[in-house]
Structures are given as C-alpha cells and as structure tokens.
Design goal:
Arc Repressor Mutant, subunit A; D-Maltodextrin-Binding Protein, domain 2; 5-stranded mixed sheet; 4-stranded antiparallel sheet; 11 helices
C-alpha cells in the first residue's frame, strides 16, 4: 500500500488560518504572507485533494462541505503539534529541567508540593518521568533523579532525602477484623516485590504462625499495592511519608495502632553525571532538600 503524504504541511497552516479568518487577505496578514501567496497555497492543497475547500466571494470566502469536514481534523493536528512542542521544549525564556522520580513520589508526594516551587521559579519548566526499580534509573537522560533504595545503589554524591515508616492499611471493614498480629495471616497480604522491607520484617517475632503459609499478592510498586487494598483485595503496607496523601485519598485506615517498623531503604537525590546539570537543577535541588528537611523535622 502506497502512503500519500501532503507535500507541504504549510498548506494546512494556511488553510486553517483562511478558514478561521474567512478571508485570504486577513489570513495573509496573520501569517505575514501576501494574499496571492495564500491563494496559491490554498489552490495547491485543493488540487492535491481533488476537491474545492472554499467558495470564493468578492471580499469573503466560505468553506465548502468538504472544507468544513476537513477543518476540525487540520485544526486539531496543528494544535497538537503546538501543545507538544510547548510541553517538550518550552518557551525560549524558560529553562527545561527533566527529572526522573520513583513512582510513589511522582504520584502524590511530589505533585502536592510543586506549586511552591513553581511560584518561586516560574521560568523553570519541569518534565517528570517515573521509574520503579534501580535498573529504571540507569542510562537515563534526566538532569536529576529521585530514587528509592540503599546508599550503595547510587553514586557517592547522592543525597539522602528521607526514609520511611511502614505500617499495614486496608479498607475499614477489613481493618476492623485485625485485632492481633496473627489475624494478618488470615488475609491476603499485598507485597511490593522490589522492597527489602516488607511483611516478613513487620511480622517476624510478632506471630507464632508460619508466615510462609499466608496468601501473598506480589506487585511491583506501592501505588498498585494501595490501589489493590482500596479495592478490598487484601492488606497493603503504607510507607510514610511518601504514601500519606494516597492512603487518605483511597480511604484506607491503619490495621492496629502503633504497629509499624522503620524501613531499611531511603529516598535519594542525585544526577546521572552524564553531563553537567543545567542551572535550574541547583534551584530544584535546594528546594527539594528544604522540603525533605521539613519531613525529617
């Protein structure tokens, strides 16, 4: 099958302007072109499509039925290109900063704090991507990365932000069924596979039952774990402070009071060191460390 391509995408831009202005002359002013050039490009597009797009009048042009059908397609395509270009490249006066963030922080903890950074630095445009495993953070083109793990997993220059407190959460009807540590083994326990601190660390020395006999549901990140618990499909482990707002949003509650442990891993900030970070990276680093200090206070 031979793919037909419109020879000039500028034809579409001219068509869109002429349709909106209902005048070749006003479209020419908008596009900084001459009216004959506009008319020529419209005729070229019509010739390529094999159908007239405009009915010409003395001082005004109107769309034909074919033109009215074609216009929304063209307008949407042009708007999509403009929007994508602005999101990826930003305006000339803005600084683009690409950061890669572990999924659980990128989902709730970071977004709810970013408004303060944006007010302080309106000329810095953040582009955020996420990752889960240590492997996801290797060979990245991000300027800065926020990952979860142990100090030995990251460059020596990595800065520790904060750790985590782990505690079990579930829907209120399920949490009400937990009165002793042994009650957990009678429910499905949702475990985040990549984490080094989980159910075994939480329940060891607290129950006499064989924990291996419990039913486990393995997922690859905490966002999925909490969503699964919210659906009533088991008990998950919340990881404060990173999951605080998500626990509230899902309507989850702690199972038993004062039943928690400190996790063995932490959140770290670092740069991939593939190239010198842009000036905007220093502003973000300073802001983030201040936010982390508030968590640790």
């Amino acid at each position: 099958m031979v793919t037909r391509r419109i020879p000039s995408l500028n034809w579409l831009r001219v068509f869109d302007a002429a349709a909106r202005m209902e005048s070749f002359a006003r479209a020419a002013e908008l596009l900084n072109m001459s009216p004959p050039a506009v008319s020529q490009q419209i005729r070229a597009l019509e010739g390529y499509l094999g159908r007239p797009l405009f009915s010409r009048g003395a001082k005004q042009v109107t769309l034909t039925d074919a033109g009215r059908t074609f216009l929304p397609v063209v307008s949407q395509a042009l708007a999509s290109v403009e929007t994508s270009a602005a999101a990826i490249f930003g305006a000339r006066e803005t600084q683009q900063l690409n950061i890669q963030v572990v999924t659980v922080l990128a989902s709730n903890w970071l977004p709810e704090r970013l408004s303060s950074f944006e007010k302080m630095h309106p000329n810095i445009r953040l582009q955020i991507t996420s990752g889960n495993s240590i492997q996801d953070f290797r060979n990245s083109d991000a300027h800065l990365q926020i990952a979860f793990g142990s100090a030995t997993d990251f460059p020596q220059t990595a800065e520790r932000l904060f750790g985590e407190t782990i505690y079990p959460v579930a829907r209120p009807d399920i949490a009400a069924q937990i009165n002793t540590a042994s009650d957990f083994t009678r429910h499905r326990l949702i475990e985040v596979a990549p984490h080094r601190s989980g159910w075994f660390q939480l329940l060891q020395n607290r129950i006499s039952d064989d924990l291996h006999a419990a039913e486990f549901c393995l997922v690859d990140n905490t966002v999925i774990a909490l969503g699964t618990a919210a659906a009533g499909r088991g008990i998950a482990l919340a990881r404060a402070p990173a999951t605080d707002s998500m626990v509230r949003a899902y309507g989850l509650v702690p199972c038993m009071d004062d039943f928690s442990i400190r996790g063995l891993q932490h959140y770290y900030l670092f740069d991939p060191a593939t190239a010198p970070p842009p000036p905007a990276a220093n502003a973000f680093r300073t802001w983030l460390i201040e936010e982390a200090a508030a968590v640790n206070a």
